[in-house]
Amino acid sequence: MYDVAIIGAGPGGIFSAYELTKERYDLKIVVLESGNPLAKRKCPIDGEKIKSCIGCKTCAIMNGFGGAGAFSDGKYNITNEFGGTLHEYIGEKKATELMEYVDKINLEMGGEGTKLYTTANSKIKTLCLQNGLHLLEASVRHLGTDINYVVLENMFKVLEDKVEFRFLTPAQSVEKIDGGYKIVTPDGEICAEKCIISAGRSGSKWMESVCRDMEIPTTSNRVDIGVRVELPMEIFAHLTDELYESKIVYRTETYEDLVRTFCMNPKGAVVNENTNGIVTVNGHSYEDPAKQTKNTNFALLVSKHFSYPFKDSNEYGESIARLSNMLGGGVMVQRFGDLIRGKRSTEKRLAECTVRPTLNATPGDLSLVIPKRILDSIIEMVYRLDKIAPGTTNDDTLLYGVEVKFYNMEVEIDKNLETRHKGLFVIGDCSGITHSLSHASASGVCVARHILEQK
Ligand SMILES: Cc1cc2nc3c(=O)[nH]c(=O)nc-3n(C[C@H](O)[C@H](O)[C@H](O)COP(=O)(O)OP(=O)(O)OC[C@H]3O[C@@H](n4cnc5c(N)ncnc54)[C@H](O)[C@@H]3O)c2cc1C
To answer: Is residue 249 within 8 Å of 260, Cβ to Cβ?
Structure first.
């Protein structure tokens, strides 16, 4: 019988383990992880022999120590304005304190010297307001892909002697037993007094089955749909140099819909993302100058909330992504000038384009894929951004589609992130209340402290 079993070794699971073991060496803790240890996480795509996803048994990008964020840009946003709704459960002050605490630990683990960007007292905020745009307030610690990896390596070194890690061990089911929980894995059963589930987005389908089996209520009604914009990095340099990542929200005049910028990557590259065989678009950037490009990319997203009787918001997003895959064989790219003139982009026009695409996508027509209302809102936002970053509406600005942000269903949990079953906690992205590294990590610390109070 373990004191605590943690399912998932992403930021949520790692920070739970870290906080539980920081001073309590006596606790018996096991971490079950369906992926590999960090050092063994290698995606087989090499761009030469293997060019696209071959559907490995465990995805090196999404699964393993470090979770979905292991090879990410490592942007830790310290804010309650985006990245999740943890503050609605534990309060704004506590949520902020926990995110700041996570930042402090990251610095101790190798992040010292990385830059903290902040919107506080920024002139850009005023510029946005003068143009009907709203800059969300945040501090952003940008670890960068390289340092993020070092932080994870150090975290593992600290934890490996205190916690029992079982890699390549997916939890198959969770069952309530006398005095705790039984977790079934392919290698046998594990019993623990408390169980923390932090299975992330990749574990969302499995999480659904746990909620069904254990009669834990859930809700699901949101998906974000949009495009990734790519343009010369000079156009957004005054924003990215000062803020690195600016989250800007605009309420459109036509529909009063909200459009927002998301995941800004200065000098970055546009990349494919494969979710359950559906190819969507995303972006990366690197600290290492050798890997940097001449372009900046960011997403423009419109949130879609559904009401009764439609329940499957993710299926709606998947259908739109499938349509783009059907027409473009994957991700589609279109020049902004072609889009507004109602023309399909072609190989020829793309070859003449002054912005060099960083992703090899199929030139096409996004208006055949993205619903009119969403596309109209995106176009309106591009014109609005041009007021604060002139050049955004250049004909050669590239739009890749589609970018879809799927949301996990929201699991019913209380202010301690505990389900209706005492001792069973659901944290991080699989709870549906976090969508970011800092919120997921903070939720891990929050649960660990609650458990420690009871021990
Ligand atoms: C390419 C990319 C870039 C990103 N960049 C950023 C960024 O810069 N900033 C930011 O804030 N966020 C970013 N994110 C999002 C961020 O990575 C997630 O919000 C965060 O990792 C969530 O942490 P988590 O612990 O909840 O889940 P995850 O990190 O997804 O970890 C969950 C872990 O659980 C394991 N697991 C799943 N099911 C089971 C099971 N049944 N049994 C055992 N183990 C299981 C998985 O293998 C995984 O390792 C990015 C995501 C991606 C994919």
So the answer is: yes
Domain extent at residue 188:
2-116+139-218+410-454
Residue in 19, 34, 164, 408 to alter for ligand 1 test, most ligand atoms within 8 A of Cβ: 34
What is the number of domains present in the chain? 2
> Which tens digits make up the pLDDT trace of 53-102?
787 888 998 999 999 989 887 999 999 999 999 999 999 999 999 999 99
Note the pLDDT of residue 72: 83
Burial class (CB in 10 A: 0-12, 13-18, 19+), 182: middle
Residues 166 and 23 in one domain: yes
- Quote the pTM value: 0.87
Residue 114: its pLDDT value, please?
94
Q: Which residues line ligand 1 (CB under 6 A)?
A: 7-13, 32-35, 63-64, 67-69, 72-75, 77, 83, 170-171, 198-203, 206, 282, 428-429, 435-438, 440
Query: pLDDT (tens digit, 9 = 90+) per residue, 102-159?
Result: 999 999 999 999 999 999 888 999 999 999 999 999 999 999 888 999 999 999 999 9
Contact 132, 142 (CB under 8 A): no
191, part of any domain: yes
